[in-house]
């Protein structure tokens, strides 16, 4: 069916079969599409704001740049759907499986993503500011350049996730698992990273100014060139954490530095803190 640009605002389409229908640029705002079959439908640039899509089948649907603000997607099937550039601000996706989907450059600000499966999903450049991602699964997820300002990621699983140049300013990552995550040049200013697992994480050149890293496990993490101005490292595990020479003089000596590693720029060698201190005495 060709319903491109059709006005279906507030229409009752519950349980309707719209598989493979062309609904591009259609007005479906406030429409009842609960349990509807929209598999492989073209909904690009469609207005689905405040629409009821609970339990709808949207598998393989084209939702690129669709407007889904405040839509109800409770238990909807989005397997294989194209959500690139979609507007999903304030959407409830708490029971949706979005693993390995493409949500790059989408707007998910203030969205409810509690315990959502986003493993290996493409969220490159996505707006997740203020989103609720508590307990979410983000293993090996691409969040490079994503905006997570003020997002709640408490207890989230981000093992091996890519957050290069991501904005996590004032985000809550307490008790999250970021083991082996890539956070190079990320903005973590004022971020709560207390009791977070950062073992083997790459934080080189990250902005950690005023971040709370108390009780965090940083075993073998790479912090070369990271900005640690006024960062709280009380009780943090700094075993074999890598710093560069310039950072050493800025570190608070009340922290246990005996187990850290120091990168020597001139020789490109990595030495222990004890070796570094001996080297400085000899100079």
Total beta-strand segments:
3
Unreliable stretches (pLDDT < 50, length at least 5) are: none
Quote the beta fraction.
Answer: under 5%
Distance between the termini: 80 Å
Question: The biggest beta sheet, please?
Answer: 3 strands, mixed
Q: What is the number of helices?
A: 2
Helices and strands, in N-to-C order?
EHEEH
Radius of gyration from the CA trace?
A: 23 Å
Structural class: little secondary structure
Taken from the alpha-carbon principal axes, the silhouette is elongated
Enumerate the strands of the largest sheet in spatial order, edge to edge or round the barrel.
Answer: 1-2-3
Helical content band: under 10%
Query: What is the residue-averaged pLDDT?
Result: 93
Q: How would you portray this structure in words?
A:
A hairpin with a 4-residue loop joins β2 (261-264) and β3 (269-272). The radius of gyration is 23 Å and the shape is elongated. With 283 residues, the chain is mostly loops. It starts with 241 loop residues before the first strand and ends with a helix. Strands 1-2-3 form a three-stranded mixed β-sheet. The chain has helices at residues 245-248, 273-282, and strands at residues 242-244, 261-264, 269-272. The mean pLDDT is 93.
């Amino acid at each position: 069916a060709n319903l491109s640009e059709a006005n279906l605002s507030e229409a009752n389409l519950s349980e309707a079969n719209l598989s493979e229908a062309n609904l591009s640029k259609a007005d479906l705002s406030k429409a009842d599409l609960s349990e509807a079959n929209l598999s492989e439908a073209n909904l690009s640039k469609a207005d689905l704001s405040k629409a009821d899509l609970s339990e709808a089948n949207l598998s393989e649907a084209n939702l690129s740049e669709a407007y889904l603000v405040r839509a109800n997607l409770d238990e909807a099937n989005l397997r294989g759907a194209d959500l690139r550039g979609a507007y999903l601000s304030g959407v409830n996706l708490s029971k949706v499986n979005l693993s390995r989907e493409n949500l790059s450059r989408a707007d998910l600000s203030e969205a409810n993503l509690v315990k959502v499966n986003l493993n290996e999903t493409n969220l490159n450049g996505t707006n997740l500011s203020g989103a609720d991602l508590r307990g979410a699964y983000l293993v090996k997820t691409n969040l490079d350049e994503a905006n997570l300002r003020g997002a709640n990621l408490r207890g989230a699983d981000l093992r091996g996730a890519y957050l290069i140049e991501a904005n996590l300013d004032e985000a809550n990552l307490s008790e999250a698992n970021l083991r082996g995550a890539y956070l190079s040049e990320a903005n973590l200013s004022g971020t709560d990273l207390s009791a977070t697992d950062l073992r083997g994480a790459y934080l080189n050149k990250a902005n950690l100014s005023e971040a709370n890293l108390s009780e965090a496990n940083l075993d073998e993490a790479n912090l070369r060139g990271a900005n640690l101005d006024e960062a709280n490292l009380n009780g943090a595990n700094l075993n074999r954490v890598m710093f560069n020479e310039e950072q050493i003089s800025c570190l608070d000596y009340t922290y246990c530095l005996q187990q850290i590693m120091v990168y020597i720029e001139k020789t490109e060698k990595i030495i222990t803190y004890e070796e570094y201190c001996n080297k400085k005495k000899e100079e």
